[in-house]
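Example 9 (inverse folding). The structure is encoded as follows.
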């Protein structure tokens, strides 16, 4: 079994919603924080990229309202900051030492993203929150996660989803006979255009040779996601 030490976790906005239809719920935020806390307590170096889809997804607002893409995406990126602030609080409450770095300049809330500092925080055992996406429109937080995972030389990228329990050959919510994969290569995900992950995120992880584990956020712990081969789907080189 691989011994993954440095972990990049992508937390989607939906995980923070809990039972609510929109935004965050205290139970959703606590559950995310507890899962991260357990991983950290197990001696892992943990960095997190927060999503923002629980508040705002740029492209959906463009379709709905006719807003230009760039301001719509800017609001989406700001949503990732709100999630980061709440998650930081919850993690601090559990006793973690947390640092938050933002790609958007917002110094009263988060430190500006700086690679050297990020590496130092991880080596010192601090939980690191990356917020603000890439700081640029036309990206997603999956791609942000792949980018930051590459920069910090993460051993694995954990993608916890709230919708499915791994990667399937077709959408299991629509196709009764959909088949789940335990493992796939980066090339297979790209060739088959398996929609669970942004293809740009997959390409980036392939270049940096960082495995991606896709699994259901509500099933088991993040440690199980790391250690159990049949839990979710692993994408490797
Ligand atoms: N976003 C962006 N650039 C980035 C990351 C995110 O413009 O580098 C915007 C984009 O509008 C996206 C929104 O932020 O829809 C929220 O991110 P995402 O949809 O990835 O969140 P999740 O679905 O994971 O909660």
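The amino acid assigned to each position is listed next.
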């Amino acid at each position: 079994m691989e011994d993954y030490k440095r972990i990049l976790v992508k937390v989607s906005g939906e995980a923070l919603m809990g039972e609510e239809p929109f935004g965050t719920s205290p139970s959703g935020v606590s559950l995310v924080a507890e899962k991260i806390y357990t991983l950290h307590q197990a001696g892992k170096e943990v960095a997190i990229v927060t999503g923002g889809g629980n508040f705002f997804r740029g492209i959906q607002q463009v379709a709905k309202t006719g807003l230009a893409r760039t301001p719509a995406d800017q609001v989406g990126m700001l949503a990732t900051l709100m999630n980061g602030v709440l998650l930081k609080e919850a993690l601090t409450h559990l006793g973690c030492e947390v640092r938050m770095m933002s790609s958007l300049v917002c110094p009263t809330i988060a430190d500006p993203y700086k690679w050297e500092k990020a590496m130092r925080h991880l080596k010192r055992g601090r939980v690191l929150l990356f917020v603000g996406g890439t700081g640029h429109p036309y990206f997603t937080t999956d791609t942000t996660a792949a980018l930051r995972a590459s920069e910090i030389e993460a051993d694995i990228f954990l993608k916890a989803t709230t919708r499915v329990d791994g990667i399937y050959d077709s959408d299991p919510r629509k196709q009764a006979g959909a088949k789940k994969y335990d493992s796939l290569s980066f090339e297979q995900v790209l060739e088959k255009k398996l929609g669970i992950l942004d293809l740009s995120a997959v390409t980036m992880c392939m270049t940096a040779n960082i495995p991606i584990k896709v699994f259901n956020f509500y099933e088991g712990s993040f440690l199980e996601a790391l250690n159990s081969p049949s839990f979710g789907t692993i994408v490797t080189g």
